[in-house]
Amino acid sequence: MKLFHYHFWTDRVEETETFYRRLGFRVEGRYAMERGTVTPYHPPLEWDDFRENALIFRIIEVRKGNINITFGAGKKPIFDHIGYLVSDEELKQLCNRADVMGWKTEVGARRTFIYTPYRFKIELQTRKDAVDEGDAYLARLVMESPDESFERELERLFHRGMVEISFVSGAQLHLREVFMNGLEGSSKDPNKVIVTGLNDEKRH
Fold it and tell me: InterPro entries from the entry (predicted)?
């Protein structure tokens, strides 16, 4: 089981893509809603090729090594979910525990979602091609939450301590900071998430 992913809705779609590309992420794909149909605008297309079309991007996916980040158009930045790469057996165990806890599960052909009662989802991914090769990986997340039970309930779901996630008190559920192996320095993305290279974690 490996943390590999997070997703945002944002009103700063182009700025978010630009930020992560500057960190060495590559754009895997862009999908826009166009006249009721999902239309791809993948590379080698650049924003200058379609910016004037005022497209609403449902999903843009960027990757760097074992890190996969997606974001889509929204009215404001909203943190939506995190994702884990899991085995078939781990998927079954997590879904069974979610059922016992009364949490909804949505099993799909490409991915499974667990819906928590905290306006937050967990994606479970069994496809190895959801990430690229390379040394970059998500080492740790810092999440803000107004509910102290959130951490305990996630530990119950995963049946272990959440060593890869730190929880701090906040007014609303939000992803505050991510630590990534394979990056240097620290900067804040357009959605107010601090992205810190693993070698710089000791500075915070």
Answer: Glyas_Bleomycin-R_OHBP_Dase
**Which CATH number covers residue 100?**
3.10.180.10
Each residue's pLDDT tens digit, 30-44: 999 988 889 999 999
pTM for the structure as a whole: 0.93
Enumerate long-range contacts of 182-188, CB under 8 Å, 24 or more apart. 182/24, 182/64, 182/65, 182/67, 182/134, 182/135, 182/136, 182/137, 183/23, 183/24, 183/136, 187/19, 187/23
Number of domains in the chain: 1
Predicted confidence (pLDDT) per residue in 177-189, tens digit: 999 999 999 999 9
Determine the Cα–Cα distance for residues 123 and 3; give it in Å rounded to an integer.
Answer: 10
